[in-house]
Amino acid sequence: MDWSTVTFVRLGYNPLVTFAFVELSPQLAFFEIKDCPISNFTVTPQTYAALNALKKWDGDTDNYAGFVVTNNILTSSSDCAAINGQIRSLWATSASYTISVCVASPGTSSVDPSSAPAPVTKAPLTKVPSPSSGSQKSGNDKDSSSGANTGLIVGLIIGGLVIIVLVVLLIRRHQSDKTPPVTAEYQYAPPTTQAYVYQPMEAEPYHSNYAIPTGGSGPFVPPRTSTGGSGGHVASSGSLPTATSIMSEGDIFLDVAPLRPHKLELADLTVISERPISSGAYGEVWLGQHGNQKVAIKKLKDQSPASVFQFIEEIKLLSRMNSDFIVKFVGASWRRPIEMECVVEYMDLGDLRNYLATNSPAQFGWDQKLKSIVSIVRGLVYLHTFSPPIIHRDLKSRNVLLDSKKGTKLTDFGSSREIDESTLTNGVGTYQWMAPEIIIGTEYTQYIITKVTTGQLTPTLDETHTPTWVREMAAVCLQNDPASRPTSMQLAAMLQRL
């Protein structure tokens, strides 16, 4: 049987007792005979070499490469010798079982050793038959030979059809195994009739505990820090999907299909720090290595389906961005969707807040600060001119990263959202960084926040050590009326003139 072009063979759980003279080639990538009671395994040298070159399959369903065997296979040595074969061990160093096969010499007839007929010798005839008897015998021989040939042909045809059907079934099964799922590979609490498909919510008043208006049946989602931004015409409909419109956690469907093109091989990604290089309320960042590149690996502390759902949406958004002023997305990594990790480029100087705290004004002068401000504004211009536009909503010093060679970049898009003009004051974030009109739409009642919203309290700047252009730019950005504040593009134009 010629299977020399076959790359995938799966025969597991079949009552298969004989596997003999099937031609396989080095193209073979996967061979599985799980729970097959094989007692006769006979192959040619070429097939033996192709099988023995396979390594034990590691169970990775994204990469079917190797062999699978779950029981001993002991081919009869006497039957093998009857066809001039040789008993050899298969996968001797990697299999957990004893696999002895009969390797037939080249030119051996394709007869199963267990069914090989006993040798027969024919002596020469000593009596010459009479013409009549010879003619009769010749006729009988012809009839017998004709009948035998007919039976052989019918048997070969039936056998060939059976083989073709088996090959077609194996190919279809292989293609079915290789076909990626069209939705998610993992669902939390699997009632598929309730699988959730996200649709944007209408605006809801912001509550300090971010409670879900579902009568107590929905999951609690902690607030994420964000800001309303300084642009006069930027609006937002809410953060990335946070499952806030889902009735229960059993409905949350973790769809990782869009991330498959960005999935990194687990073997290529290594954590090289002993502790997180950054840690917050919801996640932590570890220093890692991907190939010859240092990377930052972001992991969630809370692995609830609601948090992972939002994290996946953040990664999907980040994967679409490509700017010198946005932290570069490297890929995503997971064994199970609930263990999702986001991998981005490593910025060696850390975040702006820590950098300001650990470096004096002399070490980090206004010429360097100007470069960082320009990069931040250009990052906002990129987001606001995206198609569709994106609002960051969490722009603060901790979400600005610095690098000695790559400069200043924006990060953390967990609260970011594509703009929807239908809602302008969806308050997602911490009040310190919100625009006044965002705070008004929330239930924050602190006295100091009231003063900010009414314009009675504004930040002050050190006039002695702060350049005039900084004070002037801050003054217009802190206007209480959003229409009086400049857009990111207007800010970029102002900085261009410096």
From TrEMBL:
Transferase as UniProt keyword: yes
GO MF assignments: ATP binding; protein serine/threonine kinase activity
Ranges where the record places region Disordered: 107-146
Boundaries of every Protein kinase domain copy: 271-498
Keyword field: Kinase, Membrane, Transferase, Transmembrane, Transmembrane helix
Ranges that cross the membrane: 152-171
Name of the protein in its database record: TKL protein kinase
Organism: Saprolegnia parasitica (strain CBS 223.65)
